[in-house]
Amino acid sequence: MEPGRERFERTIAADERIEPRDWMPDAYRATLVRQIAQHAHSEIIGMQPEGSWITRAPSLRRKAILIAKVQDEAGHGLYLYGAAETLGVDRDELLDKLHSGRHKYSSIFNYPTPTWADVGAIGWLVDGAAITNQVPLCRCSYGPYARAMVRICKEESFHQRQGYELLLTLSRGTPEQHAMAQDAVDRWWWPSLMMFGPPDDASPRSARSMAWKIKRHSNDELRQRFVDICVDQAAALGLTLPDPDLRWNEERGHWDFGAIDWDEFHAVLRGEGPCNEERLTRRRRAHDEGAWVREAAAAYADKRAGVGAAA
Ligand code: FAQ
Q1: pLDDT at residue 309, as a whole number
Q2: What is each CA distance from 219 to 22, 133, 142, in whole angstroms?
Q3: Rg over CA atoms, the chain
């Protein structure tokens, strides 16, 4: 075996980190670029569903919290694009792939947010699912991705709590507010379970990614962990989960849950979800409208470099 590959295999086996300058197989690099870029795209597209509520938040306190959360998501996108760049790809190229539909982003962000309770359901369920999926990524074998995930997870856990607290307030409010919270949970529950990806027997990438210790657990393992966590939390919130098949299984020590509509998941991935077109159109417009900021920043950087060279 050539020395680079041997060292790579040894590092993975010893649970140590691969760093940007280390030799790595082309397929390992490509898998990371794909996953990290999809993750980064999800963060910045994920700003839209809640972002639309900033101007309509019911109080100054709620508005300040929501602005901070959406801003955090932009920051997560930046850490993740930065981590992808350490693998030798260009950020412009990744954004171009997102804007032209050649790169995916999480299915969850193609669902609408018609009521204020959706902000709570996103925090509780979507951020909750994201944390369940992402805490193990803090131990990913690729150093820059693992380190970015540590900070992201800390922020996501604050996001999850604000969603939970928002839903709790609504659930304990007037009957109309309670109904609004229940309706949001009814709409977000199944799409949140889809965030974990296809079932293990239909997940083409899981086995390889787990062998490389990019992923530490399979999609179904993490989905089950999430369901187990949510059942008690839903009860504490005074809300129900929209699944008549949800039952404690003494033998397995887990909650059994009903069948996920994978046809819906694949339709959303094909671009046929309720908001796919709206999300991408808005993203492209934001990118075009931000061109002057990028140009100004580049001109400033060039000028500084010129000053540095002259000195
Ligand atoms: N949506 O073989 P697998 C967030 C694709 S961040 C869209 O199982 P893998 C924060 C998959 O990419 C949410 N596509 O693939 C926030 C692959 O496609 P490809 C994002 C999906 O990679 C909260 C194909 O299906 N989180 O929420 C989805 O082993 C609130 C086959 O699937 C991450 O990205 C899906 N749900 O496992 C922000 C975490 N599922 O590339 C704002 C990092 C699967 O072959 C507000 N990513 N696909 O064309 C991962 O952990 C993994 O990539 C999985 C998929 C688990 C998503």
Answers
A1: 63
A2: 28, 8, 19
A3: 21
| Ligand 1 in reach of 110 Cβ (< 6 A) | no
| In the predicted structure, residue 308 carries a pLDDT above the cut 90 | no
Distance between Cα 133 and ligand 1 center (Å) = 9
Q: Model-level pTM greater than 0.70? A: yes
Which residue, among 113, 99, 120, 108, has the nearest Cα to 52 in the 3D structure? Answer: 113
CATH T-level topology, domain 3-261: Ferritin (1.20.1260)
What's the CA-to-centroid distance between 182 and ligand 1, angstroms? Answer: 27
Q: What is the pLDDT of residues 114-151, one digit of tens each?
A: 999 999 999 999 999 999 999 999 999 999 999 999 99
Nearest CA to ligand 1 atom 43: 39
- 172 contact partners, CB below 8 Å, separation of at least 6: 178, 238
Q: How far apart are CA 229 and CA 250, in angstroms?
A: 16
Provide the pLDDT for residue 306.
80
204 lines ligand 1 (CB under 6 A): yes
